Amino acid sequence: MISLGYLFFAVSPAKADDFICLVEAIYHEARSESITGMVAVANVILSRTASKKYPDNICGVHQGKYWEGNPVRNRCQFSYWCDGRTEKYRDIAALKKSITVAEMSLIGLQVKQTVNATHYHAAYVAPKWSSSGRFVRLGQIGKHIFYLDKGN
Prior knowledge:
Number of helices: 3
Low-confidence stretches: 1-5, 7-12
Helix content: 25-40%
Largest sheet: 3 strands, antiparallel
Number of strands: 8
């Protein structure tokens, strides 16, 4: 393990589809964040794949309610996945940054503050689950607040 202040490296393999899903999630959830904020979001996604409560693949952790094979609007774990909008990459610089962050995250780059975090939300919302005693607030990075699930 290599430590770089707030960041450190471990090792995590991924398949091509999972890589694409990770890039997509980082881009749509955190493209306006700093590199640290983007890595923190990626950490949550990868932590979920390691948890028995979630699917063991990156694409699977989008989870949500589906009807006739399509995600039900605003009923998914990651808001971009079922917000009713098409997932398009309009900001090429942010896409390139998302690809780099995905690559670094998959080889083990982590933000110490979000190690094992399985939940986050935008700072401007307060989902019901966040005030549950089941979740420990780890802190805020950029526009997102990160949580550890004590039930994991």
